[in-house]
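The instructor's notes for this session suggest beginning with a concrete chain rather than abstract definitions. Hand out the sequence below and ask the class to guess, before any prediction is shown, which regions might be ordered.
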Amino acid sequence: MPFRRIPRGTRAQTLGSLAIVTLVITSITSCDRRPQIEANGAASSGSSEADEGGGAGSDGIPGGESSESLRIMGRTAYTDRDLAGAIVFYQLSLDAAARIGQPIDPGLHSELGQVYLDQGWLPKAFEHFGQAIQSGRAPIASYVGMGDAYARQGRSSDAIAQWRTALKRNPSDSVASDITKKITDEEEKVKRNAFRPR
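After discussion, reveal the predicted structure:
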């Protein structure tokens, strides 16, 4: 896949996001706020600053950046079409949740998979859609995204199977007509290709 030239306004946005992300990563890696287990088995932060409410969020990230707030930053970056920034914030959200032992919401993997799909990074898209689906609690968007990724690879039967699974899970979903159209279009593409001389 050829590299696309980034428009000037987008370049500044991306550089701004990367500067913020660098600051967040530097803050996270420069201070260790993992809970320490005391003799009685209770967890403590080991820092009076966190106990006083200054500096660290609920999961020990400086500046109050919890897993959920990082996820929101990822959504904002994605909405602004800053895909590189969205990937970083979503990944930081996953890392923050894992650090405190918080269960990972499959929707987070689904959202990150969609960003990778939009970037054209299919292996990472498959990885995150797959993790969401394996959880057993995946949103419909995970199946749709997995189907879209298969379609980009030319694996029509796998794509159609994923889209049908999405429809079975919730046939009255607001995107059901879009999914049905994807299935119909892909089936027509398969029929056209079957009759095309090689």
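Then share the key points. The chain has two domains: 7-26+49-104, 123-198. The radius of gyration is 21 Å.
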